[in-house]
Amino acid sequence: MNLSTNSLGSSVKFRHFLSFIFKILSLLGLLLGLIVLLVLIGDLIRRGGDRLSIDFFTNFASRKADRAGILAAWVGTLWVMLITAVLTIVVGVSAAIYLEEYAPKNRATRLIELNILNLAAMPSILYGLLALGLFVHQMKLGSSLLTAGMTLSLLVLPVVIVASREALRSLPFTLKEASYALGATQFQTLVYHQIPAALSGIMTGVILALSRAIGETAPLITIGALTYIAFLPQSLMDSFTVLPIQLFNWLSRPQEEFHANAAAAGLVLLFLTFLLNGVAILIRIKARKNIKW
Amino acid sequence: MNSEESLKIDIQNLNFFYKTKQVLKNINLQMAEKKVTALMGPSGCGKTTLLRCLNLMHELIEETRAEGTVNLYPQKVNLLSDEMDPLWVRQRIGMVFQKPNPFPKSMYENVAYGLRLRGLKNKTELESRVEKALNQAGLWKEVSDRIHQPAFSLSGGQQQRLCIARALAVEPEVLLLDEPTSALDPISTAHIEEQLSEIKKHVTVIMVTHNLHQAARCSDETVFMLNGEVIEKGRSQKLFTNPQDQRTENYITGRFG
Ligand SMILES: Nc1ncnc2c1ncn2[C@@H]1O[C@H](COP(=O)(O)OP(=O)(O)OP(=O)(O)O)[C@@H](O)[C@H]1O
Ligand SMILES: [Mg+2]
């Protein structure tokens, strides 16, 4: 038997070949994603690029396509995102800290963890139904910005909780140990070491969550968001509309001109999503700078 | 222990368990104030575990149990009693771990952390205390011009000395050192050993070491442990030249372990 040269030699070659194939496959996957995104953006620009003007941003919606704008929609989207972000970060990170650091490790905790994972997979329309019953009718918050923020926050909380827990859990035990050995309390250890060190992981979760929330339409329609609105919200309790709803509304009209408006609104939505990610990435980079392993 | 030395730590009938596994068996030990006591013994005999019991770090690990008494003098309090506040204990008994574990922050922040925890805010006071601690750990000369750079930019030996400085900055009564030089080259080791004679002027030191020469050189007393039990304890000079127990002799002459 000539195991050492022949059979081993060919298996090395074969392994190189496999590794090469895998490299090509992952490259293809990346290219496919990129191409689809580029085609989408190109198509939107072709169809709606002309509509992008200052007026488009400063006009309210209108029955005349060439005078219609997205003022109410983009302001509404910004408001809703802000409320969602604040609620999600505060509640999500606290919940993650509680589950990871304070909760007793027993059956009940494991059951809660499992259900959080389940919640992350729930269709968004169901959150809309829950919010309609609970926030709109029961708590009498109406179809307001606050309701919208709370609904979207509920929707993306599981993502943030899971990501934050993962980030906290992946920290080395020696970090905690070093802090406690100096006489720190659990709270001091969390604030000085664990949260800062986990921040970039937490922000990754927040990015994912907000990118999902910004495009959500179904739950907001369910809670009764308006499609036509001619004023800017003044308080948390005002009614509102958001970009995806405006976009959907224009798309569902028969006239071609409104479809151009929809494409332009789509571009703005895409841009806002990128902007949001950009901000979150900046925060991540800053968080990484302060932590040097 | 001589009569003129005062008692600092008195361990009585200490038993320790991870879950149901008994790791320390009926330990009885006395440590004198401002002396260096070396803990020696084969790997896995419970040296680290004994150190962790002294500043209640075992409480961080689930399903551990410590029975017995560990009295700290001059306060004369039992560290293992249920009413004992671990914070109170750890403020007085500092620990340096087997592997260097600096915080992922600047060197300055590492050493200042314990002081900040105690509410010290005054910048000049903080700076002077950080400098003093780094001096005590023999690190100041090497890093004085870059103490605001990340601690992880230091070499392993420097990181370990930073951890010693971090523990010393809060002026503990007792310092627990778990193999502080196991990962260091002879020069860094010599550095730390030199500092030890300075440190023990103010602090009671309990040090785990696998290096018999180090124990002989730096410690006043040496404890030999085996399988969770204390086999022998005595003046280092005496224990190394004239061990009383056959097992101790076997160990220091390299016949096992
Ligand atoms: N977290 C833990 N859970 C269960 N058993 C543990 C744990 N930590 C240590 N032990 C066990 O306790 C015993 C003593 O361990 P300890 O770390 O105190 O040994 P040591 O004397 O410090 O050894 P070394 O010289 O290798 O550092 C070992 O048998 C070890 O396997
Ligand atoms: Mg050890």
Write the layout of secondary structure elements.
The complex is a heterodimer of chains A (293) and B (257).
Chain A: H1 3-48, H2 54-58, H3 71-102, H4 107-120, H5 124-138, H6 145-169, H7 173-181, H8 186-214, H9 218-222, H10 243-251, H11 256-290
Helix pairs in contact in A: 1-11, 3-6, 3-8, 3-10, 4-6, 5-6, 6-8, 7-8, 8-11, 10-11
Chain B: E1 7-18, E2 21-32, E3 36-40, H1 47-54, E4 64-72, E5 77-78, H2 86-92, E6 93-96, H3 107-117, H4 123-136, H5 140-143, H6 156-168, E7 174-178, H7 186-199, E8 204-208, H8 212-218, E9 221-226, E10 229-235, H9 236-241, H10 246-252
Parallel strand pairs in B: 3-8, 3-9, 6-7, 7-8
Antiparallel strand pairs in B: 1-2, 1-4, 4-5, 9-10
Helix pairs in contact in B: 3-4, 3-6, 4-6
Magnesium ion is lined by residues 47-48, 98, 178 of chain B.
Structure description:
- The complex is a heterodimer of chains A (293) and B (257).
- By secondary structure, chain A is mainly alpha-helical.
- Chain A has two domains: 2-51; 54-290, MetI-like (MetI-like fold).
- Helix content of chain A is 76%, strand content 0%.
- Chain A has eleven helices and no strands.
- In chain A, helix 1 (3-48) packs across helix 11 (256-290) and helix 3 packs across helix 10 (243-251).
- The mean pLDDT of chain A is 89.
- In chain B, helix 3 packs parallel to helix 6.
- Chain B is an alpha/beta fold and 257 residues long.
- Chain B is globular, with a radius of gyration of 18 Å.
- The longest helix of chain B is centred in the middle third of the chain and has 14 residues, at 123-136.
- Helix content of chain B is 35%, strand content 26%.
- Chain B starts with 6 loop residues before the first strand and ends in a 5-residue tail after the last helix.
- In chain B, the strands form two sheets. Chain B has a six-stranded mixed sheet, with helices on both faces. A four-stranded antiparallel sheet of chain B has the order 2-1-4-5, covered by helices on one side.
- The relative contact order of chain B is 0.17.
- The mean pLDDT of chain B is 89.
- Adenosine-5'-triphosphate is lined by residues 18, 23, 43-49, 61, 98 of chain B.
